[in-house]
Write a structure and sequence with these properties.
The complex is a heterodimer. Chain A is built from twelve helices and no strands. Chain A is mainly α. Chain A is globular. Chain B is built from 15 helices and 19 strands. In chain B, a hairpin with a 2-residue loop joins strand 6 and strand 7. The longest helix of chain B has 22 residues. The chains are: A mainly alpha, B alpha+beta.
Chain lengths: 308, 531
């Protein structure tokens, strides 16, 4: 296990280095002018030239990359051209919001996936309707789903808030979380649910389960002791993958719901070529993706020791 | 095929597929306010103005050089002068200066300051603050620092008189001061106390040091801003003791919140496609307020397609201005008839002489090899410009030209000046304008390659020289001559005079009185509740 973790840590460093280089090179080849973005539309050419010098954009490429890397290692991603604040400060407020949204969406996704898989594998009555609804809803693009959610549950039914993160205590925060988390969770729920269903169906048909039943074990005991643990492996791997995708999915969902997270921050930074912000979000998301998948692998190994 | 012959799984899926839209339809037809009755007014003294998108830069008057954050800057700070509210012409009005004199040479400006004004830290506003504000603007070097670059000296003969001397004559100086991006008065005491190592820039990211009717109470950048009425304000006070400025990052979500009554007013943020819903509505008020903004066409003379002046002029003539403006912008604008913004030159002497005539473009198209390609650009996310670019591209396609409309991020658009050959052949701007109401500010930014919005560097030395002469003397005839000369390049078409479209709840009064031609935002202290 230790060797496995060391190997994964090494790959994390390699991934981040490659990402840093890619992000840095993209900044260089992008046609946008960050100095112009920092100063505004009507700034004169002379002011823009002075700003370019101040930002170090006229230094040699290698110098700029080493400076970028050195600062990034220390968690210093520079100052945002757009907000004029340190990017680390911006991320310190945006990352918790995104983490909250993603974790809530992940919980919703796991619950829906479990319902989807169990209802199908165990042939619950009328479960087909629920599965069908999930299938249909999951085919809608997230932005459309988000807008429909706002129109129905905020504008028409007045059950839930339509935007923002909520500031009136835990009840308000939870209410604000429901719609964006559910919209974000739908597609991953289906992906995880399908894998889990396949695992459950295969395991339920296995000899050891038949033997367990013939020994007189009840349904709950059979499922708990002999089915779930054997069936869950592939869906754990898929969950890790989907958790990583959830972070990427926040860009659209956070925008529609005005959720003040990293997705929104990234979406606002791209049109203004705010490279320090774009680079920082990319690196953070890259790191999160690798860490989450490593954790999923560890959990999978714990659930099925044969994989160790 | 009978329904029963379909497989069980498919049947279930079909039922679900039908159930989802049925539920949505049922939800949309139930609940909500279908009566068309106006939303109720707030009873807690809170005005909520929804902002579309993060304000981006901090609301520091010497740094902020963007759009919707002006709602914060202009309600927490004040300048010496401003543009007159509720007027569709460029007219300088008093603010912290009650009167002023300008010497005939446009070099010495004497301001008589308002008595009894205090900053939000309680210290009195005196003439000393004028020099401090100008000096800070120079030190911070923001995008609008040019407005005080020509200030040679600020003398303060007494506490309520400031004499500003410029190093060269500048008839646009009052417009610099009246501009929403112009210098604002900042408490010297608060600036010194919070100077840090960056001239208080860090402090002013979340605080203010102005004299305005409101002060920043809570700053949650990217989420919301809360302004609180300043009890010591010298001027009239509105019934709104708190102004909430929540940030919406999606126009549809903002519109739904407004319809729902959670937002009191929206300034210039809703799409043109929603015009029909609000104009003449019994539930909401809709206002079209004058601005200095225009929709514009810029032609790229460095591209082979538009190398000749005749080709550029033919292209501009092929644009059906009236139809395009009506179709895309509707009542949000009117076709421009002048080369500068509406009302900048008295009497409209700067007449724009482009008449719709597709024949020259048709003739030019016949001289081109079959399938000649050209691109019409627009800024990403600007749906009005996108529509206009697509309509014009379709017209050129009908002539056998392989015209396409393409979007470009704003940062890329402003980078073309470094190498205009990288830009498209022509560019449609949905909404753009100068910082202030002087014709110089218009001509300089759009026609001088060093001005900022001359994307393709199409300039004429003689025009720049005429503009320089005109700004020194304030001679309108020179401004007109410069504009007419520039129009000959075929690089430029002022398509429309754009307006600020404000939607407000029925209970909100004073919207027109709280708006001026330069600000593009509302003065919240002039808003009220309908009785």
């Amino acid at each position: 296990m230790l060797r496995f973790l060391l190997r994964r840590t090494g790959s994390l460093i390699v991934v981040l280095l490659v990402l840093s280089a890619v992000v840095f090179l993209l900044q260089q080849v992008s046609p946008g002018d960050p100095a112009r973005a920092a100063l505004g539309a009507n700034a004169s050419r002379a002011a823009v030239a002075a700003e370019r010098h101040r930002l170090g954009l006229d230094d040699p490429l290698a110098v700029q990359f080493l400076r970028f890397l050195g600062h990034a290692v220390r968690g210093d991603f520079g100052t945002s051209y757009r907000t004029h604040r340190p990017v680390a400060t911006d991320l310190a407020s945006a990352f918790p919001a995104t983490l909250e949204l993603v974790l809530a969406a992940f919980v919703v996704a796991l619950l829906l996936a479990a319902l989807f898989a169990a209802s199908s594998a165990l042939s619950w009555p009328f479960a087909g309707i629920g599965r069908g609804v999930l299938l249909v809803v999951a085919t809608a693009p997230p932005f459309l789903l988000a807008l429909v959610g706002i129109v129905v549950f905020y504008a028409r039914l007045d059950w839930l808030p339509g935007s923002g993160r909520g500031e009136g205590g835990p009840g308000s925060e939870l209410a604000h979380l429901v719609l964006p988390a559910t919209v974000l969770a739908i597609a991953p729920a289906l992906a995880i649910g399908r894998i889990l269903r396949a695992g459950l169906e295969a395991t339920l048909a296995a000899d050891h389960v038949r033997t367990a039943r013939s020994k007189g074990l009840g349904q709950a005991a059979v499922l708990g002791r002999h089915v779930v643990r054997n069936a869950i492996g592939p869906s754990l791997a898929m969950s890790g993958l989907q958790l990583g995708f959830l972070f990427a999915g926040t860009v659209v969902v956070e925008q529609v719901f005005s959720w003040p997270g990293m997705g929104n921050y990234l979406a606002s930074s791209i049109p203004t070529s705010d490279y320090p912000a774009i680079a920082a979000v990319t690196l953070v998301l890259g790191a999160v993706y690798v860490v989450v998948n490593t954790l999923a692998d560890v959990l999978q190994t714990a659930a099925d020791p044969r994989l160790a | 095929m009978r329904f029963s012959s379909i497989g069980r799984r498919t049947r279930t899926l079909l039922v679900a597929a039908a159930a989802v839209p049925l539920f949505v339809l049922a939800a949309c037809s139930g609940g909500g306010d279908e009566s068309g009755a106006p939303n109720a007014a707030p009873t807690d003294g809170t005005l909520t103005v929804g902002l579309l998108g993060d304000i981006g830069q901090p609301p520091d008057p010497d740094v902020y050089y963007a759009n919707n954050g002006l709602a914060i800057v202009l309600n927490t700070y004040e300048g010496l002068v401003q543009y007159a509210n509720d007027k569709d012409t460029v007219e300088i009005a008093p603010r912290l200066a009650t009167s002023w004199e300008v010497d005939p040479g446009n070099t010495v400006f004497t301001f008589h300051l308002r008595q009894g004004v205090t900053f939000h830290d309680g210290t009195p506003f005196t003439s000393a603050a004028v020099k401090v504000a100008f000096d800070r603007r120079t030190a911070v070097k923001g995008g609008a620092a040019y407005m005080v670059a020509g200030v040679k000296d600020v003398a303060t003969p007494d506490e309520l008189t400031a004499v500003v001397t410029l190093s060269a004559p500048n008839s646009a100086f009052l417009d610099y001061l009246a501009s929403p991006f112009g210098p604002k008065m900042e408490s010297p005491t608060a600036l010194a106390a919070n100077a840090g190592s960056d001239d208080a820039q860090t402090y002013l990211q979340t605080h203010d040091v102005g004299t305005g009717p409101y002060t920043i109470e809570t700053a949650k950048p990217g989420t919301s801003w809360t302004l609180k009425q300043y009890a010591g304000y010298w001027g009239e006070k509105s019934p709104f003791t708190t102004v909430e400025l929540p940030i919406y990052t999606d126009a549809s979500a903002l519109q739904l919140a407004f319809d729902h009554g959670d937002v009191s007013a929206v300034v210039a943020a809703l799409p043109s496609s929603s015009l029909e819903k609000y104009e003449g509505s019994k539930q909401f008020d809709s206002y079209m307020l004058p601005t200095l903004q225009s929709a514009l066409v810029t032609v790229n003379p460095t591209k082979e397609f538009f190398r000749s002046q005749q080709a550029r002029v033919a292209f501009l003539q092929s644009i059906d201005q009236k139809s395009l403006v009506d179709q895309v912008l509707g009542s949000r604008s009117e076709p421009a008839t002048t080369l500068y913004a509406k009302g900048m030159i008295p009497g409209g002497a700067d007449k724009q002489e482009i008449t719709y005539d597709p024949a020259p473009m048709t003739a030019y198209a016949k001289t081109l090899p079959a399938g000649t390609a050209m691109t019409i650009g627009y800024a990403s996310g600007n749906t009005n410009a996108e529509q206009m670019a697509n309509i014009q591209a379709a017209k050129l396609q009908a002539l056998g030209i392989k015209a396409t409309a393409a979007s470009y991020p704003t940062s890329q658009v402003f980078g073309w000046i470094n190498d205009p050959t990288q830009g498209p052949d022509a560019f449609f701007d949905g909404n753009n304008g100068p910082d202030g109401g002087s014709p110089y500010m218009w001509g300089h930014v759009f026609w001088d390659a060093s001005g900022g919005i001359n994307y393709f560097g199409c300039e004429v030395e003689e025009v720049n020289a005429q503009l320089d002469q005109a700004v020194a003397t304030g001679d309108d005839a020179l401004y007109v001559a410069a504009a007419e000369e520039y129009a000959k390049t075929g690089c430029y078409y002022n398509l429309s005079y754009n307006k600020d479209w404000v939607v407000a709840q029925k209970w909100l009064t004073g919207v027109e009185e709280s708006h001026n031609i330069g600000a593009n935002e509302l003065d919240f202290s002039k808003l009220g509740l309908r009785k």
